[in-house]
Amino acid sequence: MQCAWVVNYAFSRWAGVPIPCQCGVAWESGKGASRCPHQAVLVSAFGEADMTNRRKGGAMELDESVHAQIEALCKQGNELAAAGSFDSARDMYKSALQLLPGDHREWEAATWIYVAIGDVHFRTADYEKCLECFFNAVQCADGLGNPFIHLRLGQCCYESGSLDKSADELTRAYMGAGLDIFMEDDPKYLAFLKTRIDM
């Protein structure tokens, strides 16, 4: 699953607007809405996009100009990631993260930005930095229990040799989103999980 898909879908939920997938099909909410094959996986991981404004963090709400700047930076990051310019994409996401006021962990946007940065590291096989980003994401708003976040945590633990922890995190991903969430990545992760739990 490419990070651009993840961040586009996450920000369609957060910003309150449908955003096209990299394959060109717009993601929409509601029964009977058309969806690309990637959205089906993302819906299972993140939940149905409700297209309501998600600028809030607890009782606070982001200033509209800050919201717009974050959205623009993440859009640039998505485009760079889709083009394979991962270092530049990471820089855009980091710039967006720095715009969040106060304790950024209180903002839902921080969850998705950490996911984006971490997924860039995953795509470049920097599993140590990827693990750090997803560990941060799981501590942000709506991070704990998110199947995609637990998937990446489990994959990073697998790559570092922490197999018991990997099995725990991958199980969380499987329980939250089923087999579909494993389908876009190397089959070795699912094969490993099958040695640890009955599926």
Mean pLDDT: 79
Determine the structural class based on helices, strands and strand pairing. mainly alpha
The helix count comes to 9
CATH superfamily: Tetratricopeptide repeat domain
CATH topology: Serine Threonine Protein Phosphatase 5, Tetratricopeptide repeat
* Anisotropy-based shape: globular
What portion of the residues fall into strands of 2 or more residues? under 5%
Number of strands: 2
Biggest pleated sheet: 2 strands, antiparallel
The succession of helices and strands, N to C, reads: HHEEHHHHHHH
Helix content: 55-70%
At the first level of CATH, what is the class? Mainly Alpha
Count structural domains: 1
Strand order of the largest sheet: 1-2
- Unreliable stretches: 13-20, 29-34, 48-56
Alpha-carbon distance between the two ends: 22 Å
CATH architecture heading: Alpha Horseshoe
